[in-house]
Amino acid sequence: MRIHNKDIKQSWALVIALCTTFSALEIPARLVLGQYTSVSFDVFDWVVTIVFSIDILLHFRYPEWCIGHERGEPVTALRRYGTWMLFGDFLAAMPVHAFLISSPVQLLRLFKLPRVAEYFRQWRYSQVQNWSVLRLVFFVYWLVLSVHWLACGWLALRGIAPGLDLWSSYLFSLYWCVSTLTTVGYGDVIPATNAERLYAMGVMIVGIGVYGYVIGNVATILAGIQPARARYLEHMERLTAFMKYRNIPPGLQRRIRDYFAYIWGKRLGYDEPTVLSELSPSLITEVSLFLKRDIIEKVPFFTGASDELIREIALQMRPVVYTPGDFVFRAGDQGREMYFISKGTLDVLAKDGTTVYTRLTDGDFFGEIALLLNLPRTASVRAVDYCDLYALDKETFERILARYPDFAEHIQQMTKERQERGM
Questions:
Q1: b/e per residue, 11-23, with b = 16+ CB within 10 A?
Q2: CATH second-level architecture of 128-225?
Q3: pLDDT tens digits, residue range 139-175?
Q4: Among 34-38, 146-150, 234-238, whose mean pLDDT is lowest?
Q5: Strand 318-322 vs strand 387-393: parallel, antiparallel, or unpaired?
Q6: Domain 274-421 class?
């Protein structure tokens, strides 16, 4: 049995991240505030131990769960898992909470954080469109953990303030930590011992680094959140200048802007051929078949076609976009292409341009007579809304048929039958 479902792996990674985050927050607070935990926290510690133990078994049992599996790393379980990662996972899964209740050894749980960092890295690179946003979110995540740990360290040095309860003392320490890290430093909390002074200086140094990182990178992160939008706006500025220079009518200008707005909103300005051209040949074939196989097989004269023929047709179909009101073709035009509807709605109109014969939508096809018979269009087709279509021209279709004589004979027979029926 092999687990390939990406959603299951991501859900499990989220469980690991949540358990690790709670442990990273709760264990340091428990050590400095004393035994405030209840039975529910004890139960959670055992749940975390079980979850972390299962995680180790899963990574040994299912190679596809291991980090780097997709990159073709060595196949042995230990090398695929990673020696240091295994060691850290093992330490994090140890049930030390059952034997060393108040010992700092419980911080071994934090050895699971490198795996959480690796999950974050995978999530960030898998969400390319929101890469900058996730980078900012993960920075805030690590900053919150760091502030919490530093506040717990200060509380461990200073102890519970007189007249304050546990949580008020922690909040007081958190206040000092935040004001120091942000270089505000109001001066109302002053180190009293050498240990506190050394700790405060360390926190100040960390604060300088955090401040520099925030100033130097947050602006870059925010500026990079929507790079596609910046490219779109730059493109639209050039397009507007061109249309004004050439005195394009206002109505046509609006339709052109609507077209590019649709392209950017749905595809971030990238067209399908450009994206596919950057893939390997095998991936291009797989993606093309995924996008087009279902609508190709709905066409009656492709029934019974071989997988090789379907694959070639899918690779040769080119995407086209029509905006509301555009005519794909008009009655009387010479037919040279047939169309497959990926998304959108179109009306088939009579020669008068107003009478609607039928309405076509996702998964439908039309214009197939152009591939079978060299006849003018008998009807017009007009887009009702934004339509994503695939077009297959007659020359390409005939070139493909030349390599499949048996299927070409089948097409010729179907064409002959249509002519005899007057279709």
A1: ebbeebbebbbeb
A2: Orthogonal Bundle (1.10)
A3: 888 889 999 999 999 888 888 777 777 888 888 889 8
A4: 34-38
A5: antiparallel
A6: mainly beta
Say which amino acid occupies 303: T
**The CA-based dihedral angle spanning residues 99, 101, 107, 108, taken in that order and rounded to the nearest 10 degrees:** 10
Question: Of 237, 323, 208, 227, which is closest to residue 269 (Cα–Cα)?
Answer: 227
> Which range (144-148, 164-168, 366-370, 414-418) has the least confidence?
414-418
Tell me the pLDDT band of 132, cut-offs 50, 70 and 90.
low
